[in-house]
TrEMBL record:
Designated gene of the protein: SMG8_1
Ranges of compositional bias, category Polar residues: 50-74
Cross-referenced InterPro entries: SMG8-like
Name of the featured protein: Nonsense-mediated mRNA decay factor SMG8
Job description of the protein: Involved in nonsense-mediated decay (NMD) of mRNAs containing premature stop codons.
Segments for region (Disordered): 17-99, 172-203
Family recorded in the similarity comment: Belongs to the SMG8 family.
Keywords, sorted A to Z: Nonsense-mediated mRNA decay
Alphabetized Pfam families for the sequence: Smg8_Smg9
High-level lineage: Eukaryota, Metazoa, Chordata, Craniata, Vertebrata
């Protein structure tokens, strides 16, 4: 209902969700997940319709994911001991990655320990395009309500664009998709026609482009702010916008919860939660790949990610990724930190953005 009033007309990148092929789809059974090989004995318990045989021939009760034994996917590095089941996953075919089940849905959210080949009925993530790259003004910041004064500015991320006709490799820094895809922290980039500090949006003659990035936090009272580091709030006092580069927030694990800058008079601390990620992709031969991974609790808490793990943001766009408000597996929710729990266990893993040069269109 609210979407029709605010963002229903905006362009978006739709994330894959469960598409039923039967009128009465069912959630994946946790009991079958423990006994994936005994499909014939659990046929009556699941009460699946006969149309499931198109996905798993010979076993009409199990979805493709569970009948292949994918439900024994472990917690990965956060597993706590018994590794007998953890050996099943690498031996199974990757067919389920291309054919998600249409008769069973994932009762929780997608994460590193959920069965493969299952999708939730709806996505807890949202990726919208607010406009073109020029719709963000670096001198005024985000023109949205409830931001703390001077904290609505996105951080600049200067990237070198390598031209195919460029011969002087000493002045260029290639973007090959590897570890050198983004500039190292505290490394100044100098182009042929000036320093990185004087660049505008879009491609310049010096083959450099500027992306803008902003990790936005919001507390329970609606106060919003952009963070320039794990423990720092953006403070832009003048009209020039934020001065801190985005490399610090991109090259480190960002906290999922931070103490709210306005604690109030009560003894109970207030937390601000990571709510959105803003990305301004310039009109340049550049592709930004989005890969958010969130660990909302101490190990062995799994790592949550969107239903599509990597999303390419095309050039000339002002994008916003909305993070989930709460994180839940098929076994229940992951609760926010209490007063005596360290906030460092709740984090967004580094590497959320990756930059590569786009192949130029042949003339």
């Amino acid at each position: 209902i609210l979407e029709e009033k605010c963002c229903g007309k905006l362009e978006r990148i739709a994330l894959p969700v469960f598409q039923p092929s039967t009128p009465d789809p069912a959630p994946a059974s946790d009991q079958v997940q423990r006994l994936p090989s005994e499909g014939s004995g659990d046929a009556e318990k699941l009460k699946e319709p006969s149309t499931a045989q198109s996905h798993t021939p010979g076993d009409t009760s199990l979805s493709l994911a569970l009948s292949l034994g994918q439900s024994t996917d472990s917690l990965g590095p956060y597993g706590d001991g018994d590794g007998a089941e953890n050996q099943v996953q690498p031996k199974r075919p990757s067919l389920i990655d291309r054919q998600p089940s249409t008769v069973e849905y994932l009762p929780g959210m997608t994460h590193s320990a959920c069965p493969k080949g299952l999708l939730p009925k709806f996505s807890s993530w949202s990726l919208l395009k607010l406009g073109s790259a020029k719709s963000y003004n670096c001198h005024t910041g985000l023109e949205q309500p409830s931001f703390l004064p001077g904290s609505s500015f996105l951080l600049p991320w200067d990237l070198v664009i390598r031209s195919r006709s460029e011969e002087d490799a000493g002045l260029m820094e290639p973007l090959d998709g590897g570890s050198s895809s983004w500039p190292a922290p505290n490394k100044s980039l100098v182009g042929k026609r000036g320093s990185a500090g004087g660049l505008g949006r879009g491609r310049r003659r010096d083959d450099m482009a500027r992306v803008f990035v902003g990790f936005e936090y919001e507390d329970s009272r609606g106060r919003r702010f952009i963070s320039s580091g794990p423990d720092k709030i953006v403070k832009a006092l003048g009209p020039g916008g934020a001065k801190d580069p985005a490399t610090r927030v991109l090259n480190t694990d960002m906290p999922l919860y931070v103490p709210s800058p306005s604690q109030g008079r009560g003894l109970k601390p207030h937390f601000a939660q990571l709510a959105r990620l803003f990305i301004v992709v310039p009109d340049a031969p550049l592709e930004i790949t989005l890969n958010p991974q969130v660990q909302p609790g101490p190990p062995p808490c799994p790592i949550f990610h969107p239903e599509q793990t990597e999303v390419v943001l095309p050039p000339d766009g002002f994008w916003v990724l909305r993070f989930p408000y709460s994180y839940a597996t098929e076994r229940g929710p992951c609760f926010p930190p209490k007063e005596n729990q360290p906030l460092s266990n709740y984090k967004v893993l580094r590497g959320i953005l990756r930059a590569t040069t786009a192949n130029p269109v042949p003339q």
